Amino acid sequence: MGFPCLFVLLILAPTVAWSQAWSQGIPRLTRGNSLAVEKENDFLVSPNGTFSSGFYKVGTNAYCYSIWFTNSVNRTVVWMANRDRPVNGKRSKLTLQRNGNLALTDKDSSVVWSTNTFTDEGVQAQLLETGNLVLVNEANTTIWKSFDSPTDTLLPSQLLTKNTTLVSMRSPGTYLSGFYNLKFDDNNILDLIFNGPLISSIYWPNSAFTVFLNGRTPYNSSRRAYVNASGLFRSSDTFKFNASDYGVGPKRRLTLDYDGILRLYSFDEPTRLWKISWLPAGLDNCTVHGLCGPNGICVNRPRQKTCICPNGFRRNDPSDWIKGCSPLFNLSCDRNELDFMELPNTDYYGYDLVTYGIGISLQECRNRCLSDCKCKGFGYSTDGQGECFPKGNLLNGHNMPGKYVSMHIKIPRGKINSSAELEMARINYLNCSAAAVVLGGDNANGEKPTKNRYMKYLISLAGSFAVIETVFISLGWWYVFRRHVHEELANLGCIVLALGFKRFTYAELKRATRNFKQEVGKGGFGSVFRGVLDDERVVAVKRLEGVLQGDAEFWAEVSIIGRINHRNLVKLQGFCAENEHKLLVYEYVENGSLDKLLFNDPGTASILQWDQRYNIAVGTAKGLSYLHEECLEWVLHCDVKPQNILLDDQFEPKVADFGLSKLFKERHDTKFSRVRGTRGYLAPEWMMNLKIDAKADVYSYGIVLLELLTGKSASDYLSASVSDSSYCNHLVQWVAKQMEQEGLEKIIDPRLNDVYDREKLDRMVKVALLCVAENRDTRPPMSKVVKLLTAHDHESSQDESISD
């Protein structure tokens, strides 16, 4: 069983390589000359090589003309000319035209960006040691500079003025303009602003305080701010700060990051990484507006955030939390048909209705909201002040332990259960293996997560569990809670609920499995046994072998698996951690794994029919899409294969075995270890030791699709030599050859006796070949795979509804 993974490792390139790259750049661009996107050595360098300026790849065959720190890991970009209009990777150019205009043109010669400078004088483009790209004339007068049009970063000696704005990037790895701005407002105050698709609001400085209480003044209308090389920041509204490592030495940058937080970074020369040397006081992940969109709730964790939808709401866009959540119900104005769902320690900031009040009862606050059709819910203070905050919109939701407000969301009566444990949601880093994998954001310092940091987090988590447990014992409700909470909360998706799944004793599981007698499966991580619990539930108990972690760390990490819930994923129901005994308890899936039915002998009666194979393909794609894009934002499986796809009594697929590689992270990894996947299903990037992302799962899924179509196992097409780097493509090559020589029908499993849907067959073949493309950038994401496989199905159902 492979494990979903969510963790960050930076791949360090040798300094020598960067030095060589610098030496190959050019110091200036003169009139009539160009920099071509295809030529790797066509870029400008600053006099001492601190900065480079050239074409920077931002996507598949997409480039932006950029400035970056030459020696930083992965080239930290500080400016882009065309961040919202990338150019093609072929025939695009940056040209200093003879009329003095610096223009960026796409492959069709259309102008994407230019400086709009026109002069008959001699002009040249230079990249200064400050990181400023300038056009200078023969008199050495600057006629244009990049410092006048910043993107998301302010460099030392660069001014932020009334005419300039820092705009964040959209998300990690997405350089499009984001939704957060740093700019001076009309009152001469430097603000951080959420400028979203629907609303705009200031979230820093805290608008609950006056300008003067925030230490600002509106009287200086010059509107100028800067940071210098020593790490000193000064603004005309009197806002100021010093870097924690104040003084001349490290290179610095002030960046408005994609999460809406302004950070000052200092460059560490030995590691070539950035360290945070200043953060705005009082601004944490969930204080930022708009992070989770309308109706969404930001759950605050140290140096990171989790976005969730309240129970009864659905995420609008799996790839973009800014779009928030939508209710799965309609509200009437009849108060007799309405109720409220309570969310403790939760509030939606702003958008209070005029029916706000203080010193009133909870019942009165409830009645005010019920009587107002515009009221979507109300917040009520729990500090004894009796403050009532009816809400016209549910925006800027956040949940924090110790927040003295409970949110009550208006819902149809009797339709939705309470979601009282939202504060337990959290994010964890998950490893696929010891290989270099890049899947998500860095920690707050831009560094790789360390074991000490992770252990501190685990200790904090364990402490939280202990506090919760103590409270329940003191109230006398521990027994009741333990017996009933799992059943009530098991369907809350990816939210970790403190005791949302059971911790079994070893004696319980030994009794349930009759001393581990009925083995139903065996994998690289251990054996699986059928068991019957005391409440008569049938379960699958996996006895893990070789886990090196202690009980507390194991407990914390299996809780990650326990919160994942989707109809096409096997559900973890509990675990056991007693010294050397480490076991996982899963739901029991009746028909076993796909390989046992798919690769049966031709004479076997139980053959998977066409409709079953198609439904398995679609269901598996939906499960993987959920892992990749909906659950905890980025989760990989890392070992997709038929053995890890289980079939229930209705032949509905359930993807299994995500989660275990994290528990074995201390084991020595080999080139084709069990942690890193299974031969025959590994994407080409595994063999080339490249970073692994979601497209590796897409490749493995493509191989499974080919197996469903052909009835042939990828393991039958392996070469004898592990050193043969192309072995995993042999089934793909066989399919391609058969289709070319004999036609599509020749690849179909003969046991189907030519009974299949031709249109669905075409779709599955096309999707499979897209998924197993050598170039991972051309493989579709799993959400797109689902759409491609079911597109015609949706159209047909729509046509039927129209005809009805």
TrEMBL record:
GO terms for biological process: recognition of pollen. Residues 514-797 form the Protein kinase domain. InterPro entries: Bulb-type_lectin_dom (IPR001480), Bulb-type_lectin_dom_sf (IPR036426), EGF (IPR000742), Kinase-like_dom_sf (IPR011009), Pan_app (IPR003609), Prot_kinase_dom (IPR000719), Protein_kinase_ATP_BS (IPR017441), S_locus_glycoprot_dom (IPR000858). ATP binds at residue 542. The chain crosses the membrane at residues 457-480. Its main location: membrane. Its EC number is 2.7.11.1. Residues 1-19 form the signal peptide. Residues 282-319 form the EGF-like domain. Residues 29-148 form the Bulb-type lectin domain. The keyword Membrane applies. It is a single-pass type I membrane protein. It is found in: Membrane. GO terms for cellular component: membrane. Keywords: ATP-binding, Disulfide bond, EGF-like domain, Glycoprotein, Kinase, Membrane, Nucleotide-binding, Receptor, Serine/threonine-protein kinase, Signal, Transferase, Transmembrane, Transmembrane helix. It catalyses: L-threonyl-[protein] + ATP = O-phospho-L-threonyl-[protein] + ADP + H(+); L-seryl-[protein] + ATP = O-phospho-L-seryl-[protein] + ADP + H(+). GO terms for molecular function: ATP binding; protein serine kinase activity; protein serine/threonine kinase activity. It comes from the Eukaryota. Residues 333-409 form the Apple domain. PANTHER family: OS07G0415500 PROTEIN, RECEPTOR-LIKE SERINE_THREONINE-PROTEIN KINASE. Belongs to the protein kinase superfamily. Ser/Thr protein kinase family. This is Receptor-like serine/threonine-protein kinase.
